[in-house]
Structure prediction request, 359 residues.
Amino acid sequence: MGQKAIRFGVVGLGMGRHHCVAINNARGAELAAICDKHPGRLAEREKEFKIKAYQDYAAMLKDPDIDVVSIVTESSTHADLGIAAVKAGKHILVEKPVDITPARINKLERAVAAAGVKCGCIFQARMEPCSIALKKAIEKGKMGRMIGMHGTLPWYRGDDYFLGPFGPWRGTWTIDGGGSMMNQGIHTIDQLIFLGGPVKRVCGFYDVFNHNIEAEDLAVACLQYENGALGTVFTTTCANPGGPQTVYGFGTKGSFRKAGALLTSYEMGGKAERKRMMEKFGDTDTNPDASKDAMAVALDGHTMLMEDMARAIKQDREPIISLAQARHAVEVVCAVYKAANTGRTIEVARMPGARATAS
Ligand SMILES: NC(=O)c1ccc[n+]([C@@H]2O[C@H](COP(=O)([O-])OP(=O)(O)OC[C@H]3O[C@@H](n4cnc5c(N)ncnc54)[C@H](O)[C@@H]3O)[C@@H](O)[C@H]2O)c1
Prediction:
Protein backbone atom coordinates (compact mmCIF):
# COMPACT_ATOMS: atom_id res chain seq x y z
CA MET A 1 0.00 0.00 0.00
CA GLY A 2 3.10 2.24 0.17
CA GLN A 3 2.50 5.78 1.36
CA LYS A 4 -1.14 5.82 0.31
CA ALA A 5 -3.42 6.90 3.16
CA ILE A 6 -5.74 4.31 4.69
CA ARG A 7 -9.31 5.41 3.97
CA PHE A 8 -11.89 5.38 6.77
CA GLY A 9 -15.69 5.33 6.64
CA VAL A 10 -17.39 6.33 9.91
CA VAL A 11 -20.82 4.95 10.90
CA GLY A 12 -22.74 6.71 13.68
CA LEU A 13 -22.19 10.45 13.79
CA GLY A 14 -22.62 11.43 17.44
CA MET A 15 -19.27 10.46 18.93
CA GLY A 16 -18.49 9.55 15.32
CA ARG A 17 -17.97 13.25 14.67
CA HIS A 18 -14.89 13.03 16.94
CA HIS A 19 -13.73 10.08 14.88
CA CYS A 20 -14.01 12.18 11.71
CA VAL A 21 -11.94 14.99 13.25
CA ALA A 22 -9.40 12.50 14.63
CA ILE A 23 -9.07 10.78 11.23
CA ASN A 24 -8.51 14.16 9.58
CA ASN A 25 -5.77 14.89 12.16
CA ALA A 26 -4.12 11.47 11.91
CA ARG A 27 -1.06 10.82 9.77
CA GLY A 28 -1.57 8.06 7.20
CA ALA A 29 -5.37 8.15 7.52
CA GLU A 30 -8.02 9.81 5.41
CA LEU A 31 -11.76 10.31 5.91
CA ALA A 32 -13.46 8.76 2.85
CA ALA A 33 -17.14 8.58 3.84
CA ILE A 34 -19.64 9.01 6.65
CA CYS A 35 -22.86 7.16 7.41
CA ASP A 36 -25.85 7.75 9.67
CA LYS A 37 -29.39 6.51 9.28
CA HIS A 38 -30.69 9.79 10.73
CA PRO A 39 -30.98 12.12 7.71
CA GLY A 40 -30.72 15.39 9.67
CA ARG A 41 -27.57 14.33 11.49
CA LEU A 42 -26.04 13.00 8.27
CA ALA A 43 -26.76 16.24 6.39
CA GLU A 44 -25.17 18.31 9.15
CA ARG A 45 -21.96 16.26 9.13
CA GLU A 46 -21.88 16.14 5.31
CA LYS A 47 -21.94 19.93 5.32
CA GLU A 48 -19.18 20.05 7.95
CA PHE A 49 -16.80 17.47 6.45
CA LYS A 50 -17.72 17.81 2.74
CA ILE A 51 -17.38 14.08 2.22
CA LYS A 52 -19.35 11.21 0.65
CA ALA A 53 -22.41 10.56 2.84
CA TYR A 54 -24.47 7.38 3.11
CA GLN A 55 -27.77 6.95 4.91
CA ASP A 56 -27.66 3.22 4.17
CA TYR A 57 -24.88 1.28 5.93
CA ALA A 58 -25.04 -1.61 3.43
CA ALA A 59 -24.41 0.87 0.61
CA MET A 60 -21.35 2.27 2.38
CA LEU A 61 -19.95 -1.23 2.79
CA LYS A 62 -20.04 -1.65 -1.02
CA ASP A 63 -17.85 1.44 -1.48
CA PRO A 64 -14.44 0.25 -2.78
CA ASP A 65 -12.83 3.49 -1.59
CA ILE A 66 -13.12 2.45 2.08
CA ASP A 67 -10.46 0.34 3.81
CA VAL A 68 -11.62 0.66 7.45
CA VAL A 69 -15.08 1.12 8.95
CA SER A 70 -15.10 3.00 12.22
CA ILE A 71 -18.09 1.80 14.26
CA VAL A 72 -19.56 4.47 16.55
CA THR A 73 -23.20 3.46 16.89
CA GLU A 74 -25.19 2.41 19.98
CA SER A 75 -23.15 -0.11 21.97
CA SER A 76 -25.30 -3.21 21.34
CA THR A 77 -25.03 -2.76 17.57
CA HIS A 78 -21.21 -2.92 17.34
CA ALA A 79 -20.81 -6.68 16.79
CA ASP A 80 -23.55 -6.92 14.15
CA LEU A 81 -22.32 -3.88 12.21
CA GLY A 82 -18.75 -5.13 12.60
CA ILE A 83 -19.62 -8.57 11.26
CA ALA A 84 -21.32 -7.00 8.22
CA ALA A 85 -18.24 -4.85 7.58
CA VAL A 86 -15.68 -7.67 7.84
CA LYS A 87 -17.83 -9.85 5.57
CA ALA A 88 -17.60 -7.01 3.05
CA GLY A 89 -13.79 -7.21 3.33
CA LYS A 90 -13.33 -4.08 5.46
CA HIS A 91 -11.05 -3.69 8.47
CA ILE A 92 -12.87 -2.32 11.52
CA LEU A 93 -12.20 0.05 14.41
CA VAL A 94 -14.77 -0.33 17.20
CA GLU A 95 -15.72 2.15 19.93
CA LYS A 96 -15.96 1.12 23.57
CA PRO A 97 -17.53 -1.11 24.69
CA VAL A 98 -16.77 -3.53 21.84
CA ASP A 99 -20.33 -4.77 22.42
CA ILE A 100 -22.37 -5.41 25.54
CA THR A 101 -21.76 -9.15 26.13
CA PRO A 102 -18.71 -11.42 25.80
CA ALA A 103 -20.81 -13.80 23.63
CA ARG A 104 -21.44 -11.09 21.02
CA ILE A 105 -17.79 -10.08 21.06
CA ASN A 106 -16.70 -13.68 20.59
CA LYS A 107 -18.98 -13.91 17.54
CA LEU A 108 -17.36 -10.77 16.14
CA GLU A 109 -13.91 -12.19 16.83
CA ARG A 110 -14.71 -15.35 14.86
CA ALA A 111 -15.96 -13.25 11.93
CA VAL A 112 -12.81 -11.09 11.99
CA ALA A 113 -10.60 -14.20 11.98
CA ALA A 114 -12.58 -15.78 9.13
CA ALA A 115 -12.33 -12.60 7.04
CA GLY A 116 -8.60 -12.18 7.74
CA VAL A 117 -8.96 -8.45 8.45
CA LYS A 118 -7.81 -6.20 11.31
CA CYS A 119 -9.98 -5.18 14.24
CA GLY A 120 -8.84 -2.32 16.45
CA CYS A 121 -10.68 -1.03 19.52
CA ILE A 122 -11.00 2.31 21.29
CA PHE A 123 -9.99 2.89 24.89
CA GLN A 124 -8.35 6.27 24.43
CA ALA A 125 -7.04 6.52 28.02
CA ARG A 126 -4.56 3.73 27.22
CA MET A 127 -2.86 6.19 24.86
CA GLU A 128 -2.33 8.88 27.52
CA PRO A 129 1.44 9.43 27.95
CA CYS A 130 0.96 9.09 31.74
CA SER A 131 -0.77 5.68 31.36
CA ILE A 132 1.98 4.42 29.03
CA ALA A 133 4.74 5.57 31.39
CA LEU A 134 3.02 3.99 34.41
CA LYS A 135 2.56 0.71 32.58
CA LYS A 136 6.26 0.62 31.66
CA ALA A 137 7.26 1.33 35.27
CA ILE A 138 4.95 -1.41 36.58
CA GLU A 139 6.25 -3.90 34.00
CA LYS A 140 9.84 -3.09 35.02
CA GLY A 141 8.86 -4.12 38.55
CA LYS A 142 9.24 -0.66 40.09
CA MET A 143 6.08 -1.05 42.15
CA GLY A 144 7.22 -4.47 43.36
CA ARG A 145 4.54 -7.11 43.70
CA MET A 146 1.17 -5.58 43.00
CA ILE A 147 -1.13 -5.40 46.02
CA GLY A 148 -4.00 -3.02 45.31
CA MET A 149 -5.69 -1.19 42.40
CA HIS A 150 -8.52 1.28 42.97
CA GLY A 151 -10.58 3.30 40.53
CA THR A 152 -13.31 5.91 40.89
CA LEU A 153 -15.38 7.58 38.22
CA PRO A 154 -17.48 10.29 39.90
CA TRP A 155 -19.19 11.73 36.84
CA TYR A 156 -22.43 13.58 36.30
CA ARG A 157 -24.94 13.11 33.50
CA GLY A 158 -28.24 15.02 33.49
CA ASP A 159 -31.63 13.65 32.42
CA ASP A 160 -31.27 15.16 28.94
CA TYR A 161 -28.20 12.97 28.33
CA PHE A 162 -30.26 9.83 28.93
CA LEU A 163 -33.15 11.08 26.77
CA GLY A 164 -30.56 11.48 23.98
CA PRO A 165 -30.98 13.45 20.76
CA PHE A 166 -31.86 10.26 18.86
CA GLY A 167 -33.71 8.12 21.36
CA PRO A 168 -33.25 7.05 24.97
CA TRP A 169 -30.87 4.10 24.55
CA ARG A 170 -28.41 5.17 27.24
CA GLY A 171 -28.88 3.54 30.63
CA THR A 172 -30.86 0.62 29.15
CA TRP A 173 -29.92 -3.01 29.66
CA THR A 174 -30.72 -4.08 26.11
CA ILE A 175 -28.90 -1.37 24.12
CA ASP A 176 -26.36 0.20 26.51
CA GLY A 177 -25.76 -3.09 28.33
CA GLY A 178 -26.04 -1.31 31.69
CA GLY A 179 -25.49 2.16 33.10
CA SER A 180 -22.64 3.96 34.81
CA MET A 181 -20.30 0.97 34.75
CA MET A 182 -20.88 -0.35 31.22
CA ASN A 183 -21.04 3.03 29.51
CA GLN A 184 -18.85 5.49 31.45
CA GLY A 185 -17.02 3.36 34.03
CA ILE A 186 -15.78 0.89 31.44
CA HIS A 187 -12.97 3.41 30.89
CA THR A 188 -12.01 3.01 34.57
CA ILE A 189 -12.34 -0.77 34.44
CA ASP A 190 -10.08 -0.84 31.39
CA GLN A 191 -7.48 1.36 33.12
CA LEU A 192 -7.57 -1.02 36.11
CA ILE A 193 -6.96 -3.91 33.68
CA PHE A 194 -4.33 -2.10 31.60
CA LEU A 195 -2.29 -1.18 34.67
CA GLY A 196 -3.22 -4.04 37.03
CA GLY A 197 -3.64 -7.06 34.74
CA PRO A 198 -6.50 -9.51 34.16
CA VAL A 199 -9.24 -9.84 36.79
CA LYS A 200 -10.11 -13.26 38.16
CA ARG A 201 -13.25 -12.76 40.25
CA VAL A 202 -15.55 -10.00 41.39
CA CYS A 203 -18.39 -9.16 43.71
CA GLY A 204 -20.47 -6.01 43.53
CA PHE A 205 -23.59 -3.94 44.04
CA TYR A 206 -25.47 -1.43 41.92
CA ASP A 207 -28.63 0.63 42.09
CA VAL A 208 -30.40 3.49 40.36
CA PHE A 209 -30.58 6.57 42.57
CA ASN A 210 -31.14 9.82 40.74
CA HIS A 211 -32.13 9.22 37.12
CA ASN A 212 -35.20 7.85 35.44
CA ILE A 213 -33.29 4.98 33.80
CA GLU A 214 -33.55 1.22 33.79
CA ALA A 215 -29.93 0.32 34.56
CA GLU A 216 -27.74 1.60 37.39
CA ASP A 217 -26.43 5.10 37.92
CA LEU A 218 -24.06 3.93 40.65
CA ALA A 219 -22.09 0.70 40.89
CA VAL A 220 -19.36 -0.56 43.21
CA ALA A 221 -17.27 -3.70 42.95
CA CYS A 222 -14.40 -5.58 44.57
CA LEU A 223 -11.91 -7.20 42.22
CA GLN A 224 -9.48 -10.04 42.73
CA TYR A 225 -6.73 -10.03 40.11
CA GLU A 226 -5.11 -13.10 38.56
CA ASN A 227 -1.83 -11.86 40.08
CA GLY A 228 -3.43 -11.96 43.54
CA ALA A 229 -3.85 -8.20 44.02
CA LEU A 230 -7.17 -6.87 45.29
CA GLY A 231 -9.04 -3.90 43.90
CA THR A 232 -12.10 -1.72 44.23
CA VAL A 233 -14.04 0.33 41.72
CA PHE A 234 -16.80 2.94 42.07
CA THR A 235 -18.61 4.42 39.07
CA THR A 236 -21.51 6.84 39.00
CA THR A 237 -23.31 9.39 36.86
CA CYS A 238 -24.88 11.00 39.98
CA ALA A 239 -21.87 12.96 41.27
CA ASN A 240 -22.86 16.62 40.94
CA PRO A 241 -20.47 18.35 40.45
CA GLY A 242 -18.50 15.56 38.83
CA GLY A 243 -14.77 15.08 39.22
CA PRO A 244 -12.00 13.34 37.29
CA GLN A 245 -11.59 9.60 37.02
CA THR A 246 -8.91 8.53 39.50
CA VAL A 247 -6.82 5.38 39.47
CA TYR A 248 -4.61 4.45 42.41
CA GLY A 249 -2.23 1.51 42.53
CA PHE A 250 0.20 0.26 45.12
CA GLY A 251 2.64 -2.58 45.46
CA THR A 252 5.30 -3.85 47.83
CA LYS A 253 7.81 -1.22 46.62
CA GLY A 254 5.78 1.79 45.59
CA SER A 255 2.57 3.44 44.47
CA PHE A 256 1.03 5.88 41.99
CA ARG A 257 -2.12 7.95 41.68
CA LYS A 258 -3.59 9.35 38.50
CA ALA A 259 -6.48 11.81 38.11
CA GLY A 260 -7.83 12.18 34.58
CA ALA A 261 -4.74 12.11 32.36
CA LEU A 262 -2.64 13.69 35.11
CA LEU A 263 -0.15 11.94 37.39
CA THR A 264 -0.88 13.17 40.93
CA SER A 265 1.50 10.91 42.85
CA TYR A 266 4.47 8.75 41.83
CA GLU A 267 6.29 7.00 44.63
CA MET A 268 8.59 4.54 42.86
CA GLY A 269 12.22 4.43 41.82
CA GLY A 270 14.75 6.94 43.09
CA LYS A 271 14.29 10.61 43.95
CA ALA A 272 15.41 11.76 40.48
CA GLU A 273 12.93 9.46 38.77
CA ARG A 274 10.04 10.67 40.93
CA LYS A 275 10.90 14.28 40.12
CA ARG A 276 11.21 13.55 36.41
CA MET A 277 7.91 11.64 36.26
CA MET A 278 5.99 14.34 38.15
CA GLU A 279 7.49 17.10 36.01
CA LYS A 280 6.70 15.22 32.82
CA PHE A 281 3.22 13.90 33.59
CA GLY A 282 2.10 15.86 36.64
CA ASP A 283 1.02 19.14 35.10
CA THR A 284 0.17 18.33 31.53
CA ASP A 285 -3.55 17.63 31.74
CA THR A 286 -5.03 19.84 29.06
CA ASN A 287 -7.79 17.34 28.34
CA PRO A 288 -11.39 18.56 28.20
CA ASP A 289 -13.48 17.60 31.22
CA ALA A 290 -15.72 14.61 30.38
CA SER A 291 -16.89 14.37 34.00
CA LYS A 292 -19.84 16.65 33.22
CA ASP A 293 -20.07 16.66 29.42
CA ALA A 294 -20.24 13.41 27.43
CA MET A 295 -18.84 15.05 24.30
CA ALA A 296 -15.87 16.71 26.05
CA VAL A 297 -13.58 13.89 24.99
CA ALA A 298 -9.89 14.61 24.32
CA LEU A 299 -8.99 14.00 20.70
CA ASP A 300 -5.34 12.97 21.11
CA GLY A 301 -6.06 9.36 22.10
CA HIS A 302 -8.48 8.87 19.22
CA THR A 303 -6.03 10.44 16.75
CA MET A 304 -3.26 8.11 17.94
CA LEU A 305 -5.57 5.12 17.61
CA MET A 306 -6.49 6.14 14.03
CA GLU A 307 -2.78 6.46 13.18
CA ASP A 308 -2.08 3.08 14.78
CA MET A 309 -4.94 1.45 12.85
CA ALA A 310 -3.57 2.78 9.56
CA ARG A 311 -0.07 1.55 10.43
CA ALA A 312 -1.35 -1.85 11.61
CA ILE A 313 -2.95 -2.40 8.18
CA LYS A 314 0.19 -1.31 6.31
CA GLN A 315 2.47 -3.39 8.53
CA ASP A 316 0.07 -6.37 8.67
CA ARG A 317 0.08 -6.54 12.49
CA GLU A 318 -2.49 -6.41 15.30
CA PRO A 319 -3.74 -2.92 16.20
CA ILE A 320 -2.38 -1.63 19.53
CA ILE A 321 -5.71 -2.31 21.29
CA SER A 322 -6.85 -5.65 19.96
CA LEU A 323 -10.30 -7.11 20.32
CA ALA A 324 -8.95 -9.69 22.80
CA GLN A 325 -7.66 -6.86 25.01
CA ALA A 326 -10.78 -4.71 24.81
CA ARG A 327 -13.10 -7.65 25.51
CA HIS A 328 -11.84 -8.16 29.07
CA ALA A 329 -13.41 -4.91 30.34
CA VAL A 330 -16.81 -6.14 29.11
CA GLU A 331 -16.19 -9.52 30.74
CA VAL A 332 -15.47 -7.76 34.05
CA VAL A 333 -18.48 -5.41 33.89
CA CYS A 334 -20.84 -8.28 33.00
CA ALA A 335 -19.43 -10.29 35.90
CA VAL A 336 -20.03 -7.36 38.30
CA TYR A 337 -23.68 -7.11 37.20
CA LYS A 338 -24.08 -10.87 37.60
CA ALA A 339 -22.48 -10.73 41.06
CA ALA A 340 -24.85 -7.94 42.12
CA ASN A 341 -27.89 -9.75 40.68
CA THR A 342 -27.08 -13.04 42.39
CA GLY A 343 -25.41 -11.83 45.59
CA ARG A 344 -22.51 -14.16 44.81
CA THR A 345 -18.83 -13.82 43.97
CA ILE A 346 -18.44 -14.41 40.23
CA GLU A 347 -15.50 -15.86 38.31
CA VAL A 348 -14.81 -13.61 35.34
CA ALA A 349 -15.50 -15.51 32.11
CA ARG A 350 -12.35 -15.41 29.99
CA MET A 351 -11.85 -16.62 26.45
CA PRO A 352 -9.37 -19.50 26.28
CA GLY A 353 -5.97 -18.10 25.36
CA ALA A 354 -6.94 -14.55 26.39
CA ARG A 355 -4.89 -14.75 29.62
CA ALA A 356 -1.72 -13.38 28.08
CA THR A 357 -3.36 -10.58 26.14
CA ALA A 358 -5.57 -8.66 28.56
CA SER A 359 -3.02 -6.00 29.40
N1 LIG B 1 -14.62 6.77 23.69
C1 LIG B 1 -15.43 7.61 24.28
O1 LIG B 1 -15.02 8.38 25.14
C2 LIG B 1 -16.89 7.65 23.88
C3 LIG B 1 -17.65 8.81 24.15
C4 LIG B 1 -19.00 8.80 23.77
C5 LIG B 1 -19.56 7.68 23.17
N2 LIG B 1 -18.79 6.58 22.96
C6 LIG B 1 -19.38 5.35 22.36
O2 LIG B 1 -19.79 5.65 21.03
C7 LIG B 1 -20.97 4.93 20.70
C8 LIG B 1 -22.03 5.92 20.19
O3 LIG B 1 -22.38 6.81 21.21
P1 LIG B 1 -23.05 8.23 20.88
O4 LIG B 1 -23.09 8.97 22.16
O5 LIG B 1 -22.38 8.85 19.71
O6 LIG B 1 -24.53 7.77 20.48
P2 LIG B 1 -25.62 8.57 19.61
O7 LIG B 1 -26.95 7.97 19.90
O8 LIG B 1 -25.45 10.05 19.79
O9 LIG B 1 -25.20 8.26 18.09
C9 LIG B 1 -25.36 6.99 17.49
C10 LIG B 1 -25.63 7.24 16.01
O10 LIG B 1 -25.55 6.00 15.30
C11 LIG B 1 -26.48 6.04 14.26
N3 LIG B 1 -26.76 4.66 13.80
C12 LIG B 1 -27.12 3.60 14.57
N4 LIG B 1 -27.27 2.48 13.83
C13 LIG B 1 -26.97 2.85 12.55
C14 LIG B 1 -26.94 2.14 11.31
N5 LIG B 1 -27.24 0.82 11.24
N6 LIG B 1 -26.61 2.81 10.19
C15 LIG B 1 -26.32 4.12 10.26
N7 LIG B 1 -26.34 4.86 11.40
C16 LIG B 1 -26.65 4.22 12.54
C17 LIG B 1 -27.70 6.72 14.90
O11 LIG B 1 -28.60 7.26 13.93
C18 LIG B 1 -27.03 7.81 15.74
O12 LIG B 1 -26.91 9.02 15.03
C19 LIG B 1 -21.39 4.18 21.96
O13 LIG B 1 -20.98 2.83 21.88
C20 LIG B 1 -20.65 4.89 23.08
O14 LIG B 1 -20.32 4.04 24.17
C21 LIG B 1 -17.47 6.55 23.28
